[in-house]
Amino acid sequence: MAPVAPRSGDAIFANIERVNAELFTLTYGAIVRQLLTDLEEVEEVNKQLDQMGYNIGIRLVDEFLAKSNVSRCVDFRETTDVIAKVGFKMFLGVTASVTNWDAEGTCCSIVLEDNPLVDFVELPDTCQGLYYCNILSGVIRGALDMVSMKTEVTWLRDVLRGDDVFELQVKLLKQVPEEYPYKDD
Ligand code: MYR
């Protein structure tokens, strides 16, 4: 029998990471499938995924700030850039780009070329109205809410609907000034 060449630590970790990524993708798929079974209406599934994402997003900011060296962002433009470049990399393993800014600097698009959530996914005709990755729009809305930015997040392009990339429009509705909890005397 041929001797088995020992694998380097890097190769083993790369393999573990790949398996974890696949497990994550398949687990998300199983959640969407279960919601489709339980809720029946795709609109309801879209809402539920968005709400689940929102609940994750409001918790993710603390972890993000603890793990990254990012300091407080000055405005909406900087915050969306940090989410796309650092946040997506940290939690999804891919980076996104921010484009299509409006003149006021209150609306932009986050464009995602790679999206591990959709590996192995093909939507049947019965799921045409489904925003399969709606958890992501909720995560972004929740994370921005936690840094006092109320937003509306909408899918403009979706690879599962035949587009070339994923594009999320992020519209700043209101920026709530953060209150310092103590009075300076
Ligand atoms: C600040 O405190 O001003 C910086 C706030 C940055 C918020 C970043 C939150 C990260 C959320 C990542 C979303 C990942 C989606 C997969």
Portion of residues in beta strands equals 15-25%
Structural class: alpha+beta
Q: For the record, what CATH class applies?
A: Alpha Beta
**Low-pLDDT regions:** none
How far is the N terminus from the C terminus?
80 Å
Work out the number of β strands: 4
Estimate the helix proportion, in percent: 40-55%
Q: Order of helices and strands, N to C?
A: HHHEEHEE
Biggest pleated sheet: 4 strands, antiparallel
So, CATH architecture? 2-Layer Sandwich
By CATH, the topology is Muramoyl-pentapeptide Carboxypeptidase, domain 2
Radius of gyration: 19 Å
Task: Trace the largest sheet across and list its strands.
Answer: 1-2-4-3
**What small-molecule ligands were found?**
myristic acid
Structure report:
- The protein is α+β, with helices and mostly antiparallel strands and 185 residues long.
- 47% of the residues lie in helices and 15% in strands.
- It has one domain: 2-Layer Sandwich (Muramoyl-pentapeptide Carboxypeptidase, domain 2), CATH 3.30.1380.20.
- The protein starts with 8 loop residues before the first helix and ends in a 10-residue tail after the last strand.
- The mean pLDDT is 90.
- The structure holds myristic acid.
- Myristic acid is lined by residues 60-61, 64, 70, 72-73, 79, 82-83, 87-88, 91-92, 136, 139-140, 143, 147.
- The site of myristic acid has 18 residues, from helix 2, helix 3 and helix 4.
